[in-house]
Amino acid sequence: MDTIRTEYLEERFKELQSAQTGSALQNWRSEGFKNFNKLGLPTLKNEEWKYTGISRLFTKDYTIPSKKDNVIDREIVDKTAIPGASGMEHLVFVNGKFNKDLSSFQSNDGFEICSLEEAFNGKYHEDAEAYFNKSSLFIKDGIHALNSSFMNESVFIKIRKNYHATKPFYFDHIFDTTSNHLLASPRILVVIEENANVQMIGSYYTHGSMDSFSNEVMEIVVKENARLEYYKIQNDTPNGSHTGTTHIRQIGKSYVHTVNISLNGGMIRNNTDIIMEEQANEAHMYGLYFLKGNTHVDNHTLVDNTKPHCFSNELYKGIIDEHATGVFSGKIYVRPDAQKINAYQSNKNILLSDTGTINTKPQLEIYADDVKCSHGCTVGRLDDEALYYLRARGINKDLAKSMLLKAFADEIVMQIKIEQLKEYVETQISDRLQLAD
Amino acid sequence: MLSIKNIHASIDGKQILKGLNLEIKPGEVHAIMGPNGSGKSTLASVLAGREEYEVTEGSVEFEGKNLLELSPEERAKEGLFLAFQYPVEIPGVSTTNFIKAALNEKRKYQGLEPLDAASFLKLLREKAALLELDKSLLSRSLNEGFSGGEKKRNEIFQMAVLDPKLTILDETDSGLDIDALRIVAKGVNTLHNADHSIIVITHYQRLLNYLQPDFVHVLMNGRIVKSGGKELALELEEKGYDFIKEELQESLTA
Lengths: 437, 254
Known about the structure:
The complex is a heterodimer. Chain A is of the alpha/beta class. Chain A has nine helices and 20 strands. Chain A has helices spanning about 5-20, 25-40, 75-80, 115-120, 125-130, 140-150, 385-390, 395-415, 420-430, and strands at about 90-95, 95-105, 110-115, 155-160, 170-175, 180-185, 185-190, 195-205, 210-220, 225-235, 240-250, 255-265, 265-275, 280-290, 295-305, 310-320, 325-335, 340-350, 355-365, 370-380. In chain A, strand 1 and strand 2 form a beta hairpin. Chains A and B meet through helix 7 and helix 8 of A and helix 2, strand 7 and helix 3 of B.
């Protein structure tokens, strides 16, 4: 086995810090790297990483992009963006770093986009101080610390009070691996103010034949009466691996709806956290992982109920084919003060091959006594009765299987409330299943 | 059109059919009656091609083809239709999409182009009206949340759209109230013609009041032990199966 190589990270870290003396992120990065050295890479002995051997991605030397290494041909951006991107606030990140020139968005009174440094140094100082890096209190591992160590050209977004965004915000991540392996560390902080309403999309694309490892941290703060929809779409190449934390704090009574679709990629780990910090928060979390080849997708979710009367509903579904692996770990905390909450969680899986793997682990920790919580998980094959019924009507076995799998996936896909994005995902799934229209 | 010769079939090593013979000519209606566990539904499953059943002996010819060599979908496309005793609920597949897929698979098999959208919808509307099926059911998930009567009417509706040569009604009358029974029977009668034969598997006489079988067969212990005209069904209704058992007993001791 190749040895895990982390010593080169030290070198790259020093380079980055010395190139950016005076940056508001310097101390944060130092803190991050200190933690990374302390925590190290997670191993299978770490309960949270039991089924995902992330450290084996570190047997190769990654290039960590320097300050301005965030350029790529516009053609590639245009060609690889999701359909409908031209009608969105299209924010392009190359190698984990924001590229304003390649992005296209119409600034207006409703929102503002600036670098994290500008936020710390300027008028959003209070937001940055109050909300930045709070996810590290929940995701306490070397992978999160690694993002903090190498974040660069990071972004701050403010969605202002009462703004109802007419266009979705599209975080378009492109990784250029034409000449080397790449470690990218995208970092985004979003503050959604009172009564605002916004849809956001993230997608990931590796351009080139070498490997990419994108290690993202996205923190989103949702204030009173605001509404957020967040769609994370993973349809990368098998040489694109990813770890990402989407840490959503509902600090005012608000509504959050997340959908995570994983179709392709190398090794993928998604942490989706919903922290309910105010009474009567509502969150809906959906996930679909439809995997083949050697793709490995690990979804870790957290719903942390800290106040009474919160509601959460969570449904993740998996279809595992060939040598793929799916992992689901869903945590629900109900803190002592969080009486009269409702929290539902369900994970359903279909294994299509003998060589595929599913690991599913619901975890409920309840410290309040008047709550409604439920969880359930299933792992099975396609329903033989349903298959026989379709075949008895003249539908070929393969088509019958595809129809049933499509129906299984559709329950999640229909939770995508951006029409063009939904159609795109539907097409990807239909193509995989060789279904017409 | 259908010739069943000395069929033996088992499931999980248990022998259910033990030498069953049946000949059906185009346009005939045959009723198969018999007590619980006699093998009625096994016969339906064997004909439709359910894989759990193993045919250990005998042959089935359908329209000159060896039926037992065909997959369930091939049998359906050859014109065999089984109306299920317990139609399966399939969440996420709409009734319309399901029937469209089934119809187009059959047309492809017959070398025909898929039906265009307008003709398909016209066909659907026409047949739904025949079965007095609420149009809203067509856009809903297949059988999901349908009442017992709606499920059975949906089966006959599918039969109407797919236009088979041989239909097997597997206890289609069970769980139907009198109105639903009338609608189902009317649908079947409308679609029954000189090229469309029907096997009615049932416990009771009441469906046969509407369908008027040409032949009634009594299935017991995996074999047809008595055949007759429609009057046999009335006799069974009146006397139960015991008189046949007695007859059998007598013939054995004679």
